[in-house]
Design goal:
Layout lengths: L3 H10 L4 H15 L2 H4 L2 E7 L2 E6 L2 H9 L1 H11 L6 E6 L31 H16 L1
Parallel strand pairs: 2-3
Antiparallel strand pairs: 1-2
């Protein structure tokens, strides 16, 4: 039985899966970029022999314009899928970070759950007992 590393390397070398190699090389290329450029890259892709960087902020676009020659010289070492030129643009989709909706106690419970349950109905009696348990646990 083959190991997973052997299977993955076989798939990686298969010409049918060249997009996997390209995306892997693009990720490696982004990691090689200087930190001030790497922070601004959301993702990158190749289209029509051009490597496009999708950036997160207009400031990063200015940085990429300024360092375009350096990026092209780095790109020559990687040989990513016949890439001859680079382009970059800012995404217009704003990422929304979801906040965790944890139940926040707005007040401190002052009761100790000590009360007489004088309900005659069984349903109400059980409800009051559940309330008592909630108060004692909080």
């Amino acid at each position: 039985m083959k190991k997973i590393n052997e299977i993955l390397s076989h798939l990686k070398n298969n010409p049918e899966f060249s997009k996997i190699n390209t995306s892997f090389l693009i990720k490696k290329f982004i990691e090689v970029l200087p930190l001030k450029l790497k922070k601004g890259v959301k993702f990158a892709y190749v289209k029509n022999q051009t490597l496009f960087f999708v950036l997160t902020h207009p400031v990063y676009k200015m940085e990429f314009e300024y360092n375009k020659a350096d990026i092209k010289s780095l790109l020559k070492n990687f040989k990513i899928a016949n890439v001859e030129d680079i382009g970059f643009f800012i995404t217009n989709v704003i990422e929304k970070k979801e906040k965790e909706n944890a139940p926040i106690s707005l007040y401190k419970e002052r009761s100790f759950g000590i009360f007489d349950n004088k309900a005659k109905d069984e349903y109400l009696f059980r409800k009051f007992e559940k309330i008592r348990e909630i108060i004692k646990n909080s």
